[in-house]
Request: fold
Amino acid sequence: MMYPGIAGNKKQVPPFTICFRCGICCSDHQAILSLAEAQRIADKLGITPDDFRNRYTDKRWPGIKNLLLRKRNGACVFLERVKGSKVTRCQIHAFRPLSCIDWISSSYRRECQKGLARNWGLSVSLAGSVEGTSDRVQEFCRLLESLTTCNGQEISQYNRV
Ligand code: SF4
Ligand code: SF4
Reply:
């Protein structure tokens, strides 16, 4: 699949909303979830709600109405790095909390820009275009083209702002 305007030798990628899975948002923030969501995720994982609380939530948070997922090695406990790549994956993606589902990626977003800079050596212009050397832009375009879905949607619906 080729993205209009971002293939070839271009040094700029137009503004986009594709999540390129850098994992910065899952590292810089903590996901909040309701008690009902915790129960649902515990069910999916085949563990009790108490086990879920003990293993996956932040004990510093009171947890009366909501819980926070805890961090491990500076990122959400459910985030894992895909070996040999610049991409991460959420181990509970199919049943992740609503606060994660509601998070929209965008080349205008600070966290996504941080991931672009850190993982890809790319910057974002005021107009939202991703910029960098030809090699880096092409490498990044290859990643975008390899991704088939974003937030459960076919990526073609998400490819432009
Ligand atoms: S549950 Fe998944 S999407 Fe949500 S913060 Fe953790 S790793 Fe990220
Ligand atoms: S910071 Fe942006 S690109 Fe990186 S994982 Fe989060 S939403 Fe996706």
Observations:
- Residues 134-146 form the longest helix (13 residues).
- The pocket of iron/sulfur cluster (ligand 2) is lined by residues 19-25, 105, 109, 111-112, 115 (CB under 6 Å).
- DSSP finds six helices and eleven strands in the chain.
- The helical segments are 24-28, 35-45, 49-56, 98-101, 110-120, 134-146.
